[in-house]
Amino acid sequence: MAVYNARAALPGGGPAAWGEPVRIAYDRRDILLYAVGINSRDLRFIFEGHKDFAVFPTFPIRWGGAGAVVDRAAIPPSPGPLTIDAERYLEVVRPLPLGGEVSVVSRLIGVHPRGKGAGFVEYESEVRNAEGQVCVKMVSGSFRRGVERLGDIEPFEGAGTTFSAPVTVPDRAPDVETGAHIPENQADIYRLSGDYNPLHIDPEAARFGGFDKPILHGLCTFGHCAHLLLSTLCDGDPARFRRIKVRFSSPVLPGDDLKVLAWRDGPGRVIFEARVGDRTVVSHAWFEYA
Ligand SMILES: C/C=C/C(=O)SCCNC(=O)CCNC(=O)[C@H](O)C(C)(C)COP(=O)(O)OP(=O)(O)OC[C@H]1O[C@@H](n2cnc3c(N)ncnc32)[C@H](O)[C@@H]1OP(=O)(O)O
């Protein structure tokens, strides 16, 4: 089993069974950098000397899919920027330690044709602590542009299943409204957590990907939504975080004002959307808390 550092690029590749565990080492600096990358000003997440210093619950999201075996026959590769982060789910089973080594296992759970010449690919992942206990469960969905025909998929347990369920927001005013300004340099900071895709910093790479300028990492938007909801609904207490699911519907840009609108949907559960102006940027989303 290879040892990878949290800052290094994650490996990929392989079939639809659980992949080999990937060991990931991280320390307090990684925890702090992630929290600053989603623009947290909460000392519990950005000051290691705070009495309640904690890992922000969505910290491991970038490890989604780590170690999954990619069957190239089932999912033809699509060129770099044409792979788009489309949906994410994260569930905290128990808190991650404040540093050390964890392992991540992932497997392909679904490959679906979707929309105009795109494939929608979903991976499931589990993060386990040094004792082998599951701390976090995740599902990562991405759009593969230009993959018009998905390959012949060998049948496997769970093939064709999807975690991608539609969510309709109620036809009434939201119960909760919150938001944040995304600083112009937010993507510059977020990428230091290890997501160095040039789409988020290099204007030329952004143009190649079909954008006028570098866009914010979807996972940075994800972290902002989680932080805003945890702050507003749970006084920022990470122990109350349970699960979150989002769909990235439209890109967010550094400098944007992000608004999160949430509707209560039973005890400890909200349905939410994020918007920039009138444009919905996160949809089909929900958050559960204690
Ligand atoms: C490596 C990348 C890193 C990043 O961080 S990129 C930044 C984060 N991601 C984004 O900003 C993505 C923003 N989302 C989009 O730009 C668009 O959204 C998509 C390009 C992903 C899709 O747009 P379109 O091709 O125009 O698709 P459609 O015609 O709107 O919908 C076709 C079908 O696809 C479903 N769908 C649309 N968006 C998503 C999504 N994000 N995740 C999962 N499914 C999606 C719809 O419902 C529909 O489905 P049905 O054909 O069954 O009606």
SSE order and pairing:
Blueprint: E1 3-5, E2 22-26, H1 28-37, H2 43-46, E3 83-92, E4 100-114, E5 118-128, E6 134-145, E7 176-181, H3 186-190, H4 203-208, H5 218-234, E8 241-248, E9 257-264, E10 269-276, E11 279-289
Parallel strand pairs: 1-2
Antiparallel strand pairs: 2-4, 3-6, 3-8, 4-5, 5-6, 7-9, 8-11, 9-10, 10-11
Bound molecules: ligand A1D88.
Structure description:
Residues 169-282 form the MaoC-like domain. Residues 25-146 form the Peroxisomal multifunctional enzyme type 2-like N-terminal domain. With 290 residues, the chain is an alpha+beta fold. It has a single domain, classed as Hotdog Thioesterase (Thiol Ester Dehydrase, Chain A, Roll), CATH 3.10.129. 14% of the residues lie in helices and 33% in strands. The chain has 5 helices and 11 strands; from the N terminus they run ββααβββββαααββββ. The protein has helices spanning 28-37, 43-46, 186-190, 203-208, 218-234; strands at residues 3-5, 22-26, 83-92, 100-114, 118-128, 134-145, 176-181, 241-248, 257-264, 269-276, 279-289. Strands 1-2-4-5-6-3-8-11-10-9-7 form an 11-stranded mixed sheet. A hairpin with a 5-residue loop joins β5 (118-128) and β6 (134-145). The protein binds ligand A1D88. Ligand A1D88 is lined by residues 83-87, 114-116, 118, 120, 141, 143, 164, 197, 215, 217-218, 247-251. The site of ligand A1D88 has 22 residues, from β3, β5, β6 and β8.
